[in-house]
Predict the structure.
Amino acid sequence: MTKKKPWWVKLLISLLSLVLVVAIAIGGVYFYAKSKFGIDIFQTISQLKIMAQDVDEATMFTNKFTEEDMKSAKETVNEKAKDVIAYNETDGYSITTSGLTSESNLTGEIKLTDKQVGAVLNTIINGSESDLKINFGSYEISIEIIQIKFEQLDIENNTADVNIVLKLDISAIKNSMNSFPLSLFNKYIPKTLYISSTCTVTKGSNPFEYNVQGKSLTINKLDKTQSENIVKVLDLVTKIGTSTQLCETLCTPMIDAIIGNETNSGFAYSLKSLGAKDYAFETVSETIYFVIKVA
């Protein structure tokens, strides 16, 4: 006669069986996501938790431009090109580069710090008829400029590394992440991202000629490697490409707005009618300047 198992043994067997089934299910999901999408679910969730942490702009982005930077930019620009930048208490700052008299023609080159450039770029954007948006894959995302920083200048190779920090509202992307495996990550993704992109701007041989190449990118408090993985996850929804491709997507329109050429409206190029001949990056007493040339 077979001895009947005690109730607690049956319960233990049932619990162990349940644990085994859950473990197999989790393992199946893990290996499916890893083989199909190249995503490590556990690693990604851990990284998303870091990304969801609050970002203190003042602490993380120490080169943020301020109202004082715009005030000094106005003085610097108008000293060489009268009335290009105006200010009144009702409308704030505005920039006009067309329809000016010969009195506004450049009397010398204009040298702007990275903070001044950030402030000028922000003023140009705020003066447009609509909010600044950028194509984030298949989504049109509202963005805000937080920081412009000239990080490195290589005179020999005519290159400058420019860091651009943008604040993105990705609510639309978050709301669309409702199917597997993205639904696993949805609750960890914040509605706002701070993307710090560093690109290399290479000067061409012709006036106002330049090329923009992505160099590195980080998101919120993640490091470069962690950010690359998160971009891989976002690419499943938005088709934004790799981390380097996203870096170029975000940086290029900002550099276009700063420099500009025949096909892309930009601040420096818009002063061509007033006598601007070209642009350059130069170092003076260890400070890197963006220079609008007159000769």
